[in-house]
Amino acid sequence: MMTLGTTMMRPADGPGLGHLVLPVAQFRAWLARAEPGEWLEYHRGLLALDRTKGTSSLKEAERRRLAAVADHALVLAARGGLHLLQERHRNGDYSYWAVARPSARSLVHVPSRLPIDQRSEHPRP
């Protein structure tokens, strides 16, 4: 069950209910409509093991889907579109969160160099 709050979404209610692997398309759809600061729990468990063949308890198709979502999240974070966080509940039980950041087009453009008349007359130390 996915729960939608004002600022968060969870694909599962906890590790005891089994893994619900979020499809990449659903992850992308959330990101497309997410406001800056909204967050999504995209995995609950131990991501490093759950996404790895031979150590995952997931079915192969679910493991591949999880790896695709995790890879997609990493790429978007590297491009500045997301913050990635993890929350430890207990040993081997973590929540992995994606937090939406403002898109580049919504940020106010700050010039890298100010015009001469706006520069400080005092040199920097």
What does this entry look like structurally?
Helices cover 26% and strands 23% of the residues. By secondary structure, it is of the alpha+beta class. It has one domain (3-103). The protein has a 5-stranded mixed sheet with strand order 1-2-3-5-4, covered by helices on one side. The longest helix has 19 residues, at 60-78. The protein is globular, with a radius of gyration of 19 Å.
Task: Explain briefly what this protein structure is.
By secondary structure, the protein is of the alpha+beta class.
Keyphrases for this structure?
single chain, 125 residues, alpha+beta, five-stranded mixed β-sheet, 3 helices, 5 strands, 26% helix, disordered N terminus, disordered C terminus
The tally of beta strands, per DSSP, is 5
Helix content: 25-40%
Quote the beta fraction. 15-25%
Q: Residue ranges: pLDDT <50 for 5 or more in a row? A: 1-8, 11-18, 104-112, 118-125
Order of helices and strands: EEHEHHEE
Task: Describe the largest sheet.
Answer: 5 strands, mixed
Q: Based on CA inertia axes, which overall geometry fits?
A: globular
Please report the distance between the alpha carbons of the first and last residues: 56 Å
**So how many helices?**
3
Round the Cα radius of gyration to an integer and report it. 19 Å
Strand order of the largest sheet: 1-2-3-5-4
Mean pLDDT: 76
Structural class: alpha+beta
Overall domain count: 1
